[in-house]
Amino acid sequence: MRRDKVNESLSDNALERAIRVRQVQRHIYASPQQQDISDQLAEEMPVALVFNGISHAVMLATPVDLEDFAIGFSLSEQIIDDLGDIYDIECRETPGTLGVEVHLHIAASCFARLKERRRSLAGNTGCGLCGIESLQALPAQVSPVSYGRRVAPMLHKSSLRKAIQALGIQQPFNILTGAMHAAAWVDLEGHICLLREDVGRHNALDKLIGAMSDGDHAGNEGFVLMSSRISYELVQKMAHANIAILAAISAPTALAIDIAERSGICLIGFVREHGFVVYSHPEMLVAE
């Protein structure tokens, strides 16, 4: 997709918030002359998540789809149980600072639970255990995926190929900047139904989970495809969101595989047009 076509597909407001233009110098080894050009950079700023007036987390994120981000973070961190626990969301600019505050009014029972385990989070584009206070707390953070009366989704190999072929051209911010991760919800036929982008891979997944929470996609079987490596916190968020298949273009860590095994999540890495690697629960794949 050409960059001018990408610009046509995005709203002016989204472009303004997600991308900053800066003059840079381009150097080419074969030429003694430098080129003065305008470059498009991915925006990254502190986003404070404020629950019932109390600031709980400050994450570095791309300032678009922030309501999706706040909802997805609240679900994947088990601050709320479902979307109905959020009564109101408001994004507020913070004069005199570089950041944005997202204020959520949540159910009293959820807020009481949050206060009991309240912790200070300082996230970045490569955050680790996202605020876990001790190693002893780690096992309690993992939830097994529950299918209820449904059987586990069965994924055809051709669907992975179709999805990975489409992923790059459906990342408009990354096409412009080259600095964004994507998390996509893909149906079992390989069609990308929903996609969110962010400078942080965990933020992109939270945005996707938040965007899916309205129910339009929640009842459909499918999988998540990401343009990143697979680390522990991504598997944790998948388990909390009750999504059974996570595929990505890069490798998982050993801890991510361990958690996926325990959570019943099929982990697929190195997804390319020519093939992929399955690290856990291969029974969810079907040969063709």
Automatic annotation (TrEMBL):
InterPro entries: Cytidine_deaminase-like, FdhD. It is found in: Cytoplasm. Keywords: Cytoplasm, Molybdenum cofactor biosynthesis. Belongs to the FdhD family. This is Sulfur carrier protein FdhD. It holds the Pfam family FdhD-NarQ. The gene is fdhD. Required for formate dehydrogenase (FDH) activity. Acts as a sulfur carrier protein that transfers sulfur from IscS to the molybdenum cofactor prior to its insertion into FDH. The active site is at C127.
